[in-house]
Each structure stands twice: as structure tokens, then as C-alpha cells.
């Protein structure tokens, strides 16, 4: 077997990636000014950086997108197009296959990233999180004379744009059915747990615990606890979705289920029945 090929780049290839260290800040500034972010609009230096970070450093496309300020889909498209042109994943061939920069300016988006309109739309999506995003932004668009944006365009503003108040992607999530515990709720849980421990120590082994659970059922109308209602919220696992819980009206009817557990194994009781 021959020696493995050295990953030494030719001078013209090195020139393509020589400005990589400055790309992150430059690209972020350009994107905020509304520059197109499609794969055809990415410069040769940017394409070389994407290929190098993916091939040499093994970075994920999401990480590359965050570093360079481009959508994740653009980063992956640039890489796989270069691999197809090169007929393989040899980095020398992939870098050599990068085409000259297109002179086309690209179509100017109706809503530019970083613009006042973008910020107002993103604020409306969060403030009216229980509405579908197209409906939430409709009043804002009508104020500036834009009659209609399709759902994909509005989703792009929500997911890809950023503004000072909402520096994150906004997506639709299923709303939880239980609200966030406040300090009083937390205190009651601690007190209840301590009561259980005290009762257990006092009465063991002749101890029976009876617990209840219930589900609310309204007469007519919609059951607010049912279904999978959605909310517009920040993307990420660190988001406490309990802050966006479904509002629940006071139930007019509740079905309750009870169960009992005993530490006294020799006792015997007949099960209750419903007649």
C-alpha cells in the first residue's frame, strides 16, 4: 500500500482560505444588511471555509453555520455541491472545483434581516404566540403596505433572522398542559413530602395512603386540556416551556380516580365499586 496522501494545499487553494479568520465577523455584518444567503451567493473564500471546516475539522453544518453566519442549509449545499463537482471527497479536488463568484446580485428580500420590520414581525410572533405565525404578523405587514407573505417567508423571518430583543430562532412548539410551579407550589410539595415521611415513621406498618387523580371535562365547547395546541417559542432545550402553558378555564365537571397503597401486607379490604 502506498503512503497516505499529504493534506498540503496548493498556493492558490491556500489563498482561498487565507481570510477565514476574518470571515465570521465580516459575514455576520453582511447578513444583517440583508445580503442574500443562498449557496449561489456565497463567496469563494466562504465556500473554501465551509469545505475546510467540514472536511479537515469535522465540524457539523450547524456549527459551521453559526460561525460563518449563514443558514445551515446553505453550508450543507455548498459542501455537497463541491463534492459532486469533484467526483469524491478529496479536499484538493473539492477546493479546485469552487466556481468563480457569480455576478448576479440576487433578489432583494421583502424583509431584510436586522431591519425594523423584521424586529417588529418577530416581536409580534412571540407576543401572539398562540396564533399561527402568518396571522400574528399580518397587522404589521399591512401597516407597511405589504399585502401578503407566504408561510415559508414568514417562517424564514422567525427561524433565520435575529434582532436585539430576540437573539434566537423562533419555532412552533406543542404547549404543555401544566403551568410553571411558583414558590408557593414548591413549598407545598416540600411540606407534603415531609408530612408523608412523618406519617410513615409514626404509623408504620399499619399505614394506608389513598391518592386521587382527576381530569376535567367541560360541558359542550372544547376541552382546553385536550389536543396539541401550539405556541411560538424560542428554539432550544434550555427553554422552560411551562412558561407557555395552555390556559385552562375552571372545569364544570371532573372525573376522579382514586387508588390506595398500604405498607401493612396482612390487611385485606374489598375493592370499592361504582354502581
TrEMBL record:
Q: Which InterPro entries match?
A: RNA_pol_sigma_r3/r4-like (IPR013324), WH-like_DNA-bd_sf (IPR036388)
SUPFAM superfamilies the record matches? Sigma3 and sigma4 domains of RNA polymerase sigma factors
What superkingdom does the record give? Eukaryota
Q: Where is this region: Disordered?
A: 96-119
Instruction: Give me the stretches of Basic and acidic residues compositional bias.
Output: 104-113
- Protein name according to UniProt: Uncharacterized protein
Native organism is Zopfia rhizophila CBS 207.26
Q: What is the lineage of its organism?
A: Eukaryota, Fungi, Dikarya, Ascomycota, Pezizomycotina
Amino acid at each position: 500500500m502506498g503512503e497516505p496522501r499529504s493534506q498540503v494545499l496548493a498556493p492558490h487553494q491556500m489563498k482561498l482560505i487565507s481570510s477565514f479568520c476574518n470571515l465570521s465577523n465580516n459575514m455576520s455584518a453582511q447578513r444583517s444588511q440583508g445580503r442574500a444567503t443562498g449557496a449561489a451567493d456565497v463567496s469563494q473564500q466562504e465556500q473554501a471555509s465551509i469545505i475546510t471546516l467540514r472536511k479537515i475539522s469535522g465540524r457539523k453544518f450547524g456549527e459551521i453555520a453559526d460561525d460563518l453566519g449563514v443558514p445551515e442549509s446553505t453550508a450543507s449545499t455548498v459542501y455537497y455541491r463541491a463534492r459532486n463537482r469533484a467526483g469524491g471527497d478529496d479536499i484538493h479536488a473539492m477546493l479546485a472545483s469552487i466556481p468563480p463568484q457569480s455576478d448576479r446580485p440576487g433578489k432583494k428580500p421583502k424583509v431584510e434581516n436586522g431591519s425594523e420590520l423584521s424586529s417588529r414581525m418577530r416581536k409580534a410572533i412571540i407576543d401572539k404566540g398562540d396564533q399561527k405565525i402568518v396571522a400574528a404578523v399580518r397587522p404589521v405587514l399591512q401597516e407597511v403596505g405589504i399585502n401578503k407573505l407566504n408561510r415559508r417567508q414568514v417562517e424564514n423571518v422567525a427561524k433565520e433572522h435575529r434582532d436585539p430583543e430576540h437573539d434566537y430562532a423562533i419555532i412552533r412548539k406543542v404547549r404543555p398542559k401544566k403551568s410553571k410551579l411558583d414558590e408557593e407550589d414548591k413549598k407545598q410539595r416540600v411540606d407534603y413530602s415531609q408530612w408523608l415521611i412523618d406519617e410513615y415513621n409514626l404509623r408504620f406498618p399499619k399505614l394506608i395512603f389513598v391518592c386521587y387523580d382527576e381530569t376535567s371535562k367541560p360541558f359542550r365547547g372544547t376541552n382546553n386540556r385536550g389536543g396539541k395546541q401550539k405556541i411560538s417559542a424560542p428554539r432550544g432545550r434550555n427553554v422552560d416551556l411551562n412558561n407557555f402553558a395552555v390556559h385552562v378555564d375552571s372545569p364544570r365537571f371532573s372525573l376522579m380516580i382514586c387508588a390506595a397503597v398500604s405498607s401493612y401486607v396482612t390487611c385485606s379490604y374489598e375493592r370499592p365499586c361504582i354502581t
